[in-house]
């Protein structure tokens, strides 16, 4: 059975790229053409109710080929790269056992790195340390992280409270900055025989697509989606800090004009795309290819599967 083989020999296809480049459409075409099933690797599309602002595939799109790891959590549940790796491993094994091709799709770099190269061993949560950190303001926590581990602090958003607390927790338990643990680990493990493609696009055109998509999300009901979520969940949850959701939250809770929120939504989406370009330039296993070069993408996959 394929799922029982050594992982290093198991073939999977990984499709990534910046936000707005068209990963969903091409991944569905790939799955249709190569008897595949899609596994989500987007850290926001795992949440139920976060649909418009995450550009989650529509029910119609999901009906074209099997999709996995979408809508698996409520917004108040925690989820880590380690959790993703464990669940994705399970799904890959199941898909291979059916004689089908796992197609992992998403732009969350840490999820893909964990799946392809393994994870750093870090200590389990320490409730005492965690509770003491939770009593402090996020700004104070971020300042401390800048002092003890500026490399990690620069990688995180200053309002990413969950990851800031975890970084400080690891530092206090190990005495080693998390960035040093990353350097020591090196991410040299090869967990799958993976063809990894990073879909690219000329920057100006991509930014135009991103701006248009943000406008379409507002027209499609993003404000109403966030309003409904805020009626069910507290506003300080991690999903409400993500791009799009934090901007509309500011409109609904702070009265920030929608026009200003939209401009900031566009700006931060473009900045996120830029960060994704930077991240994946450091991931040597990814081949960069134009997102609209469908014939070449299919040819690469066919050659990979037949090799």
Describe this structure in words.
- It is a single chain.
- With 307 residues, this protein is of the alpha/beta class.
- The protein has 2 domains: 2-118 and 187-306, Rossmann fold; 127-185, Histone, subunit A (Orthogonal Bundle), CATH 1.10.20.140.
- Helices cover 53% and strands 10% of the residues.
- It contains 14 helices and 6 strands.
- It has a 6-stranded parallel sheet, with helices on both faces.
- α2 links the parallel β2 (36-40) and β3.
- The protein is globular and about 55 Å long.
Short description:
With 307 residues, the chain is of the alpha/beta class. Helices cover 53% and strands 10% of the residues.
Keywords:
alpha/beta, Histone, subunit A, 14 helices, 307 residues, 10% strand, disordered N terminus, 2 domains
